[in-house]
Specification:
single chain, 382 residues, alpha/beta, Rossmann fold, four-stranded parallel beta sheet, 15 helices, globular
Length: 382
Amino acid sequence: MKIAMIDADLIGRRNHRFPNLASMKLAGYHKERGDDVELVTDYSPLFDTGGRLLYDRVFISKVFTDTPVPEKLLSLPAVRYGGTGFFYANAPPLDEAVEHHIPDYHLYDGWVEEQLKVGVKRQALSYFLDYSIGFTTRGCIRGCSFCVNQNYRKASLHSQLGEFLDTTRPYICLLDDNVLACAEWRAVFDDLRASGKPFQYKQGLDERLLTDEKCDVLFSSKWRGDFIFAFDRLSDLPLIESKLQIIRRFTSVIPKFYVFTGYDHSTPDGKPGSVDFWQSDLRDLYTRIALLMSYRCIPYVMRFAGYAASPYASVYIQIARWSNQPALVKKKTFVEFCHMHKEGSATMRALELLRFDLPDVYEGFLALRFGEPRAHSPPAMA
């Protein structure tokens, strides 16, 4: 059987630099069965000049819901599609035999070679070349309304490390939803340690579940890259701060925190229920950033798509431009960052809007420096 494997994110997202695990598992499974599998990196080569499909089966997978895929293609009998990017379509999961098949880490070889030839740096392609990728656990206890995994209520063991480990690759990347919520988390880390390979969890770890034991294991591991956590709700501030204090007893490393903003937790779809939401949300955002920076943590601002409709969209953009560049956050306040730009620029106009409409937040950002105690908190959040 002739099979086309399509990573829709690779086609539809600019500078996408992470392989699709489902595509690699499907490729590994079908190659073992003797099928002819090809990674197709455009939609047009799927058809001949007469519009006839050139493949017996087409698998389309994507991770992001906003990655575009031609709707007509999805309706063809030979096409199968899935992944979290098709969450809205209730796409079926992989068959168990495929789910637990070792990924075909050579699926992207031709594409990677082309990228290198046109000048893409090897480091930018590291996940395609250097990492074994998989899930050790699946599921989460949180059920967050903004997450595609909200139907889970627990985290459970999913795969042994050997199921997806390529011993020739130097690193391991885990995609678990919430490994620290799994009762067998310690056994997972023991297996990773026994591999001798540096590893990382790509998703944000759940800092609310940290204990002395978990911190001891985490910060003594062969970790690769940033330790990444998440601070999604201001209501978690006391708990988050207590866990930050535990972290600082075990390590001086600088973790990164995803800081989700622009999402109204009081509405079913996250879209703001009132015009007052945006000012409140910016105060909320500032307060979370201030807490993290006081403990020498990098805030990485992630904006819910609805922010674009906010009267303060430009403010969100500039805060993210500053906070998502660690070198800037460590050296300059947000206000100093804005003043790096010319008067009348979009950055300076956003700063003026913040100063005029939310002077308390402006004053907070004026004084807020990385690693220094919080000197100011907006009155609404005090």
